[in-house]
Amino acid sequence: MASSLQRLSSHARLFRTSVASGSRPFSADALVEYMPGEIGKVSGIPDEHLRRRVVIYSPARTASQQGSGKVGKWKINFVSHTKVWLFSLL
């Protein structure tokens, strides 16, 4: 029992030092500025859509979904430039 606890604590210490020394996945170093013409060639996005604003999101799960399944799916929506007319009296 004591040897298994010692092994567990040594593994935890090793894990902590490896995580602390590694780079953070959301650090500012991960931000990259792309030059014109680098994006869209492989993804199939037309050139006229590359300057449009987009909303990137992960869709919410329905109430019947549980666990961590379908977590890694992301969607991209292009923001529409057309102005929508709203009836002001409603």
UniProtKB/TrEMBL annotation:
Main location: mitochondrion
Presence of keyword Transit peptide: yes
Keywords: Electron transport, Membrane, Mitochondrion, Mitochondrion inner membrane, Respiratory chain, Transit peptide, Transport
Gene Ontology process terms (BP): electron transport chain
Keyword Transport listed: yes
Annotated InterPro entries: NADH_UbQ_FeS_4_mit-like, NDUFS4-like_sf
Gene3D superfamilies per record: atu1810 like domain
Location of the protein in the cell: Mitochondrion inner membrane
Any single GO CC term annotated in Swiss-Prot or TrEMBL for this entry: mitochondrial inner membrane
Family recorded in the similarity comment: Belongs to the complex I NDUFS4 subunit family.
UniProt protein name: NADH dehydrogenase
Organism: Prunus yedoensis var. nudiflora
Source species taxonomy: Eukaryota, Viridiplantae, Streptophyta, Embryophyta, Tracheophyta
